[in-house]
Amino acid sequence: METVLKEWDLYCDLFETKPRIKEIHLGGGTPTFFAPKNLEQLIKGILKNAEKAKDFSFSFEGHPNNSSKAHLQTLYDLGFRRSSFGVQDYDPVVQKAIHRIQPFEKVKEVTENCREIGYESISHDLVFGLPFQNENSIRNTIKHTIALKPDRLAYYSYAHVPWIKGVGQRGFDENDLPKDDEKRHLYELGKQLFFDAGYVEVGMDHFALPSDSLFKAMENKTLHRNFMGYSAGKTKLMVGLGMSAISDSWYAFAQNEKTIEDYTARVNENKLPIFRGHLLTPTDLIIRKHILNLMCNMETTFNLGLSLQIRDEIIGRLQEILADNLIEITENKVIVKEAGRMFIRNIAMAFDLRLIAHKPDTRIFSMTI
Question: Which helix (H) or strand (E) holds 316?
Fold first, then answer.
């Protein structure tokens, strides 16, 4: 805790004026593993050297099993109004395989506590493509989720990366995972069940009730996406605090040290604990705008600074997707059709010049599932 606050002090020393904070998001794990008094110490320590914007928005991720009413009340008193809980799946076989045991009753309890305290937006995260998932288990999970009526839903595709997280993903093997066609069916089934319950698709992987600020931002074309996901507000400066956190100055990205030992050592040396980063070129900035337009508004216009050569190269890479009637291409615009929403990552990849340069022979359409 003290190390994170010390890192924040290092950033504050760099700012020419007292920073004004528009958003705070406590994530990168489960902040409610901290005691309520520790969370209060953290937020008050950050705000000591800053001021809150008039339209500030604070949110946090919590674990249903350990987010007590005291946690929720403390964060609410500090200005937090949005909460998010990782549900993943309610099936006990799936939960055992992914080492995520949390009964529906705990999720119900923490959701109802949030509403009783006064939280304005509650989000549940679900995952499809998990080991042992099938149509019945997905239907049951979504049935229970809809019964609680969270304001937002995230429906993520499971990424199997045992070479990165081998220990946590060893309650199963590749044969236990839904295959490509089955996984796509689980996605389309979940999406339809959300629609039937009154949710609207927002960007990619996210759904919201029409009353939620995320939906309203999409309607007003003010939706934004950063490293933490979709946001109803936009800022060009995002400071990531803590081990492995990512910062974004709009013109550059930077990531903190990824081990607690290296992170702590750098901060104690009064140095920003950054171990890698990327300075965006003018072309990177143009491409970034196109990708954000696609992921937030499902369309982008070509007259945003691209040369005719790059434009023609992008259109060439989109031909397979165009042939499948997932997008529409006019002289100046790419528009994602409803059927193309599931493939928005693939569509955005056609604009990613660095990805193409790294994998020149890769077929865009088959790169994700």
Answer: helix 308-317
